[in-house]
Amino acid sequence: MTQSPPTAPPGQALGSALRWLGIVPFVLFATLFLLLPTMKIVLGAFEAPDGGFTLAHVMQLFDGPIPDYYLISIKISLASSAMGCLIGFAMAAAITLGGLPRGIRAPLLTFSGVASNFAGVPLAFAFLATLGRLGLVTVLLRDWFGINIYAPPISFNLLSFSGLTLTYMFFQIPLMILIITPALDGLKREWREAAEILGASGLQYWRMVALPILTPALLGTFALLFANAFGAVATAYALTGSSLSIVPIVLFAQIRGDVLQDPHLGYALAFGMIVVTGIANGLYVWLRARSERWMK
């Protein structure tokens, strides 16, 4: 005689359904505003005007001035990510391992949480009001110390590669602090004590123990910061307008219909950005997983 498989009690089945119900808003939001638009961009990049399949639009990314747009975007992202990682790591190490008063840690992390999300028009205006040609710091340096940062030999220009890189660092450094602080907290005191017992100096401990353990986290955070800077558009557009041709600004102009006049080329530009940021985020996830295994 065949027995039917046991069925779960109605109350247990209802509880399981309610648990899954909690993620429905997230699934809907991700589908409507992430997955479907991404699919539309990818399909549009390979769609011919007559509706067929073509590689012509993607191949245009390697012709004319478009590679230069990607190159300057990559350079700005690399520069701001490298400086953000370096300065952010030093600040995070100071509050976790540097012996600073514990009261400094909470305000710094709170500020980092706010500053890492401070971007767009407000950030551009803040830098223009501070370091613009008539900004507060610019005027103070000129009137009080006789230093004109916009004149040789400094020749600083906020609406340039160096100016945009400096602006991006405002949110890159706090993001680095927020991400790397837990990794620094994961360094066990026993590891340093064991190194000191074996006669290692502080420099040797960092070079042979701490940094090898932190390397996956550092590289993963660098990849995340790169993707964060590469996809930023509001800050760059509000600060430089069209004077600096980075990919997000060119894509924004294409969406508005100011240049190129080819919607499928716009899809191809967006597809290229998806590929670059996808690789960076994929590296971050992979390296983050390796870092967490080390910490365990």
Automatic annotation (TrEMBL):
Transmembrane segments: 17-36, 76-98, 118-141, 161-184, 204-227, 234-255, 267-287
Cross-referenced Pfam families: BPD_transp_1
Assigned GO CC terms: plasma membrane
InterPro entries per the UniProt record, alphabetical: MetI-like (IPR000515), MetI-like_sf (IPR035906)
GO BP, sorted A to Z: transmembrane transport
Every ABC transmembrane type-1 domain range: 70-284
CDD domains linked: TM_PBP2
Subcellular location: Cell membrane
Keyword set, alphabetical order: Cell membrane, Membrane, Transmembrane, Transmembrane helix, Transport
Membrane topology per record: Multi-pass membrane protein
Matching Gene3D superfamilies: MetI-like
Glycoprotein as UniProt keyword: no
Signal sequence, renumbered to the chain: none
Record family assignment: Belongs to the binding-protein-dependent transport system permease family. CysTW subfamily.
Listed name of the protein: Putative spermidine/putrescine transport system permease protein
